Amino acid sequence: MAENPIRFGIVGCAEIARKVARAINSAPNSAVTAVASRSLDKAFNFAAVNGLPETVKLYGSYNQILDDPCVDAVYMPLPTSLHRRWAILAAEKKKHILLEKPTALDVDELDQILDACESNGVQFMDGSMWLHHPRTTKMEEIISDPKLFGHVNYIHSASTTSGTKQFLEEDIRVKPDLDALGALGDLAWYCIGALLWAKKYELPIQVRALPDVTKNTAGVILSCTASLHWGKSSKETTATIHCSFLSHTSMDITITGTHGSVNVYDFIIPYQETSASFDITLGAKFAELHIGWNTKPEEVEVANEIPQEALMIAEFSRLVQAIRTTGCCPDSKWPQISRKTQLVMDAVKKSIDIDCRPVYL
C-alpha cells in the first residue's frame, strides 16, 4: 500500500458496499477507515461479515462519519432518493465523493450535488466500474480508428436480470420512495453510459421510449426500451437500449461501424476478475452463394492485475491525492460523464411519461 493512502468512509451498508469495501482495501492507494449505517448494530455486522480490521471506526449515523476528520473520501451506496441530501452534506464537509449510480432522481438534483462539489473543491465520480477496465480502453482504441472501424452508425446495449418474487416485491429498487427510477436507474444507467462512451459523449438529438414499458403497481419501471438518434446524413447514428428486471441476465453491447463490429456480452461485470474479452469482426462479407462468411469474429482478451472496481478506486484515489498534495482542481471529466448520462436517462423517463413521444436534447 502507498504511503498516506486515501482514507475512505462507507456511508450505508447496502450489498454493493461489500464489493466496494473489498476494492478499497485491494487498491494500492486507499483503505477503509470508517463505516456508517443507520444503526451501530448494522455497521458492526457489516465490518464482521467483511472481515474489516478492528481499527475501522464504526458509526450509527451518517452525520458522524461526515464529521470524522480522518475520512478523506466517502463511498455512498444509499438509495437514490437520499443522494442529494447526503452528497451535498459530504461535499460541505470537504469529503470527496464516490456516488453509486444512478446519481440522482433527475439532473436538477445532480446539478445541486455537482455545484456543492465544485464549490468545496472535492472530486466527484459515480460508481460505473466498467469504464475503468483496460478492456474498455482497448475497445475505445478500435472503435475510434476511422480507417479500421469506420463511422459508428449503430449501437445496441441491454442490461437485464430476472428478479425473484421477493425482489419484485421488497427490493429498494422497486420502491417509489427509495429508488423511484426502478430498472431505468439501476440498469439503463449502464446502457446509456455505454452508448455515450461509444459516441465520445456526444449527446443524442432525439430520445424516444418504446411502448413496451412495464411498471409495478406503485408505478416503478420494471422494464423498458428506448431508441436514440445522433446527427445528420452520413454521420447519423442510431442506438437502442433495453433494461428489465423481468428477463434472463444479460449485459451486452454491440457497436457497428461502416468497416467492422464489436460485441461484448459481459461489459458491466466481466465473466472473471483477472481478464475480459470482446469479439471484433472486420471486413465481413458473405461467401459466394451466401453459404457462409469470409471471416469469423476475433476474440481479443485483455488482462488486468486487479478487479475493475479496484481500478476505479485507484483512479479516484489518485485524483484525490493530487488535489490533496498539489492543490490542483478536481478532474471535471467524471462529473461531466455522470451529468450527460443523467440527462439522457431523464429524457427516456420523460418520453415514458408523455406516452413514448420523442424528446429532443
From TrEMBL:
GO molecular function, one term: nucleotide binding
Entries under SUPFAM superfamilies matching the protein: Glyceraldehyde-3-phosphate dehydrogenase-like, C-terminal domain (SSF55347), NAD(P)-binding Rossmann-fold domains (SSF51735)
Domain Gfo/Idh/MocA-like oxidoreductase N-terminal: 6-125
Source species, domain of life: Eukaryota
Domain GFO/IDH/MocA-like oxidoreductase: 148-262
Family the UniProt entry places it in: Belongs to the Gfo/Idh/MocA family.
Name of this protein: Uncharacterized protein
Taxonomic source organism: Cucumis sativus (Cucumber)
